[in-house]
Amino acid sequence: MQNQQTRQLTNGAMMAAVFTVLLAISVYVPVLSIVSTLILALPVAWYSAKYPWKASALFASVCLVLSFIIGGLLSLPLALTFVPFGLAIGISIYYKKSKLFMFMGAGIVLLLSLMVQYVASIALFGINVLEESIATFVGAFKQVGSTMESMGASEESMEQYNELFSQLQFSIETLMPVLLVMSVFMTVWVLFLILLPIMKRLGIAVPKFPPFRNMKLPKSVLWYYLIVLLVSLLSELEPGTMAYMIFINATVLLQFLLFLQGISFYHFYIHQEGWPKWVTVLVTLLALPLQSFTSIVGIVDLGFDIRGWVKRAHEFKGK
């Protein structure tokens, strides 16, 4: 028991030192900060994957205190982003949760930490990061428009450019919530690709995702999509209103999920046929311009047991 506690304290001190070094590099070293930021959650994830949640929560608190000591307020956003994220990964591994559970949990934790920091930045400092990002985007487009005008662009071309700019600005402002959610989960996916292989090399038993071809969304997703479609068709939602924003974001998110479901069916069918892997890559790339058709395939796959038909057809062929 004494040896176990000593080992726990030793590992905690070692991982806290690693976290401190990575955080200092992320804050003070310009080029290396890109690499160190990507693996900043690693010490917290490694420690919390080996020890229970109470010890892991205490370790995470120590890391937050160290981050304030090392970098002051400048380092707190990084620490508040990656310490809870690493904690979510490690606790999921320690309690032997599935990789899908770990992915969703880490994504939700990362999203919540970013939202808390966003609200805090507005309340404490009066800084709205999203509004400033949109303002920077608008300024860049206006600068391009001014350059086009100075180079002698025709009045018709400038009208088309301004119309395109207005539509793009409206789309970004309207779809900001779903774009934020999707970008967060894409970030989690990229970080998983970096962190989990390293943790595996460090002796942590990391769970695996089931093959993408076996992905099957809950059928409730299909009902949600139908409800959103019916509401948007039967009611006249005015652009710019809160109801319009909610339904357009829900539509885009559900269409994206059905698109993934369609690609999953492509992978399943190719695997059943025994075709080579390059066919899978080619079909996945072709699915991007055929997004609407692929979403329809996802709807059919979710609503009907076509995978069962494919399996039975191959079993019949085998006989």
Report on the architecture of this protein.
With 319 residues, this protein is an all-alpha fold. It is built from 14 helices and no strands. The relative contact order is 0.07.
Short description:
With 319 residues, the chain is an all-alpha fold.
Shape type? globular
Strand content: under 5%
Mean pLDDT: 85
Major sheet: size, sense and barrel closure?
Answer: none
Strand elements, count? 0
User: Which ranges are low-confidence, i.e. pLDDT below 50, for 5 or more consecutive residues?
Assistant: none
Number of helices: 14
Question: Topology, pairings included?
Answer:
Elements (H helix, E strand, L loop, with lengths): L1 H27 L4 H6 L3 H9 L2 H19 L4 H19 L4 H27 L3 H22 L4 H20 L1 H26 L18 H15 L7 H32 L3 H11 L3 H13 L2 H13 L1
Helix pairs in contact: 1-3, 1-4, 3-4, 3-5, 4-5, 5-6, 6-9, 7-8, 9-11, 10-11, 11-12, 11-13, 11-14
Keywords:
mainly alpha; 14 helices; 81% helix; 319 residues; globular
